[in-house]
Amino acid sequence: MPYISQFQLPEEPIGLALAGGGVRGYAQLGILDMLDRHGYQVDMVAGTSVGSFVATLVALGLSAREIYDNFQKFENRFTQSKVFSRPDLDMIKPTKNKINGMVDGDQILEVLDDFFEGYGVKTLADIKKPLVIVACEYDLCKVTYFTNVKNFIPKRDAIVLYDTPISVAIRSSCSFPGVISVSQYEGYSFIDGGTMMNLPVEPLKELGAKKVMSLTMRPDKSGFSSKSAMKVLKRASDLVQYELLNLQIAQSDFNINLDVGDFKAFDVGKGKLIYKKGANIALDKEEDIVAFFEPPQPEPEPIPEPEPAPTPKKETLFKRILGGFKHGKSRKV
Fold it and tell me: Which tens digit of pLDDT belongs to each residue from 241-251?
């Protein structure tokens, strides 16, 4: 574990990778609640898009219930402002540097800053559990890791930013292309991390995680049929993302896909329903979750019973006579 010596971790740390998926991220909380019920904890966390927000709260030590309550507060705020259904004019800044997104993401920074100030943290270095938040630098076409792990040098050609403001990292990771404006920070331009790495298992493995549990929210898209050119084009884009996600899932040791049905990423206001779907999936997967955190131990091999001592053979008369001659003794016959 070359990079995480700054943290107090077990010899075989467990990682948790959380994918993006917008409001469908509520489903992840159903799995986290199951972990809380069993008393299971993870040692390092990584997240993309909405998964970056969940991952940060997990790294802060919040319970699933506390995360759910905070999600409800944010969702109510978005529902009242109708940001994603009919954006308020106050949230749209049609200037040259904001025209690349329907929603001005910089206003999200203020909300996040106030939120994390309530927990006494401001930058990623204030968080005491290893954390990686993934974004995409779209000018350089590179995956970007925001992290609190010092001197982390990944194998891939990626940008690594240490000890950035938490709000900047999450806002960058959640900058869904065309919806939330591009995040500008220290000369970089960031969009949603899901563009290149929707499931960040890779950085957790490189940081030394012995095994990684991953949560995805990929809906079932089978049975597609359309005569619309735009839908076919969208389908082609989805297929590329599906294949990329498959490769990322294959890197994890245990994946739970939270298929919540027809709910979409920006179905703001439907969080409670999505959470219930995730909780039901957690019940179905409970045995698998227990097996991941408490793998069955092989039964020790039984100690072999000692072989019985050989029964001494009775000497024949001839052997007794012969033995007597060898020892210079005479025997009466």
Answer: 788 899 999 99
